[in-house]
Specification:
nine-stranded mixed sheet; binds adenosine monophosphate; binds methylmalonyl-coenzyme A; about 25% strand
């Protein structure tokens, strides 16, 4: 039997080698990883999870949660991680759309999720529960020697939901080969080896923390400090015994607020990687001045994994995302036709390669619309190539806000605000925010008689949207600026409120 991705993970695993270390000193070796993921895979099989079944998981970050991802690979299931910030209203959509066999949640979420899962015929388990009856408990009676399910390169390993411009989330289907090819390439170009120790402070329900950070570590047989969340002081404290860190730009902005961030503090580190959102050139320069390290910026998407990276050797150019990765074809094309444009001109970034996903779950029309006939995927990011071939991202063709590395599609927030009594219409924009890069901001037109204020709008969103999608500020205006076609001119709003968060205190 062969299991395309897990076989590669297994061949890099030396049983006695360290894999995960927690801040409280608890440790897992690669032998522990093989045994625990094997027991959990057996437990999943006992629960009737079969190859191709979806397993939806919304749990706090922990080594066990990562083992559950590996167990899903081994049993041949399709892993569907969900942001812990998602509300029940959001979960209802994902579970209804993906129709998982099993939903795994934290104990406090169990009662809330039961009716939702029941509606769609999914079974619910907790991962770990002091009260008993959890997957971990079930796995304790199972054998660690699990015979991995047969999975080929083209079989699905995971579905990750990304929000859509129409407000409806789409499930990006990622195959074993998508994940394996990309993580292998990153391991090689970023020179990962078994002596590396990564500071892992990202969440594990998105591509960055799961497929970039964790898969690259696994395929190198390297180890990681596993932090429940990013804490700049903690990351700094760990640097002398680590070699690599991966983060979103907010991590670096916050590290720069630490007086202890010096060349000496970062002396044992060999690499700092940034991605998921644009890293300001000034952050890149300030970090280099303080530590002597040029942050390596790379560019990716849930649908494509990683597309480009600044070079390991050679100049890491601030404000650029580097070159296409080996095996990835990237072009900058005419946004409308997909046809060629002059070198150096701004256009649509399109990519093709083994990294690019198989399509959107049960949305063949949407999938078709986002690919060109020759197989290139239309990223929605606007960019250009400079004279040396470095890729610059210069804007977004899609209406998207990125806050602290999380994506927010304004449409999804506008739909919620527009249905509130007293609202005529709204426009949600991202404006510069010193900590999160962009701050979600709602510009709202009230009905003349309405008594709605900022607090009321924010309160009404609490149960509906994940915290990070909720606006940091709500501004009321008499009307929204429109062009002659009647389209809201968000650029005018972005300019008008550009200074809104300027004086915010940093962490
Ligand atoms: C937390 N809050 C946020 C965010 N995170 N608000 C807006 N944007 C955010 N990103 C809320 C909190 O709920 C809290 O609300 C308030 O803001 C302040 O929280 P704070 O303590 O500052 O937050 P934190 O816990 O320190 O988290 C900030 C963070 C975190 C460390 C930047 O958001 C994070 O880990 N981001 C990484 C996201 C990521 O992994 N992205 C990769 C996606 P209240 O005060 O009301 O409680 S993958 C991807 O994009 C592609 C594929 C790629 O290229 O990688
Ligand atoms: P997601 O939908 O979470 O996968 O987010 C992918 C989007 O994040 C991309 O389409 C880009 O707009 C953005 N992104 C990722 N990395 C970078 C980067 N290094 N610089 C600028 N934008 C980035």
């Amino acid at each position: 039997m062969s299991n395309h991705l897990f076989d590669a993970i297994r061949s890099a695993a030396r049983p006695a080698a360290p894999f995960i270390e927690m801040l409280d000193g608890r440790r897992w070796t690669y032998g522990d990883m093989l045994a625990l993921s094997g027991r959990l895979a057996s437990a999943l099989e006992t629960l009737q999870v079969r190859p191709g079944d979806r397993v939806a998981v919304q749990v706090e970050k922990s080594p066990e949660a990562l083992m559950l991802y590996l167990a899903c690979l081994r049993v041949g299931a399709v892993y569907l991680p969900l942001n812990t910030a998602y509300t029940l209203a959001e979960l209802d959509y994902f579970i209804g759309d993906a129709e998982p066999r099993l939903v795994v949640v934290s104990p406090p979420a169990r009662d809330g999720i039961l009716p939702v899962a029941g509606k769609y015929g999914a079974h619910v388990e907790t991962l770990d529960d002091a009260g008993g009856g959890s997957l971990i408990e079930l796995s304790q009676d199972e054998s660690p020697d699990f015979l991995d399910a047969e999975r080929g390169p083209d079989d699905l390993a995971a579905i990750l939901y990304t929000s859509g411009t129409t407000g409806r989330s789409k499930g990006a289907m990622l195959t074993h080969e998508n994940l394996l090819s990309n993580a292998t390439t990153l391991r090689d170009v970023w020179r990962f080896t078994s002596v590396d120790r990564l500071i892992h402070a990202l969440p594990i329900f998105h591509t960055h923390g799961l497929f970039v950070a964790s898969n690259v570590t696994l395929l190198s047989g390297a180890s990681m400090y596993f932090l429940p969340r990013f804490d700049a002081a903690e990351a700094l404290r760990l640097m002398p015994s680590a070699t690599v860190m991966m983060g979103v730009p907010t991590f670096y902005v916050r590290l720069l607020q630490q007086a202890g961030l010096t060349r000496d503090a970062a002396a044992s580190m060999r690499l700092f990687v940034s991605g998921s959102a644009p890293l300001l050139a000034e952050t890149h320069r300030a970090f280099a001045e303080r530590t002597g390290h040029a942050i390596l910026e790379r560019y990716g998407m849930t649908e494509t994994n990683m597309n480009t990276s600044n070079p390991y050797d050679g100049e890491r150019r601030a404000g650029t995302v580097g070159f296409p990765l080996p095996g990835v074809s990237l072009r900058v094309a005419d946004p409308e036709s997909g046809g060629p444009i002059a070198h150096g001109e701004t256009g649509m970034i399109e990519v093709r390669g083994p990294n690019v996903f198989k399509g959107y779950w049960r949305m063949p029309e949407k999938t078709k619309a986002e690919f060109r006939d020759d197989g290139f995927f239309i990223t929605g990011d606007l960019g250009k190539l400079d004279e040396r071939g470095y890729v610059h991202i210069v804007g977004r063709g899609k209406d998207l806000v990125i806050s602290g590395g999380y994506n927010i599609y304004p449409k999804e927030v506008e739909v919620e605000i527009d249905q509130m009594p007293g609202v005529v219409e709204s426009a949600v924009i991202g404006v510069p925010h010193p900590d999160f890069g962009e701050g979600v901001t709602a510009v709202v037109v009230r009905k003349p008689e309405a008594v709605l204020d900022e607090g009321a709008v924010l309160d009404a969103l609490k149960e509906r949207l994940a915290r990070y999608k909720q606006p940091k500020r709500v501004i009321f205006v008499d009307d929204l600026p429109r062009n002659t076609m009647g389209k809201v001119q968000k650029n005018i709003l972005r300019d008008a409120y550009a200074g809104l968060y300027k004086d915010m205190a940093l962490h």
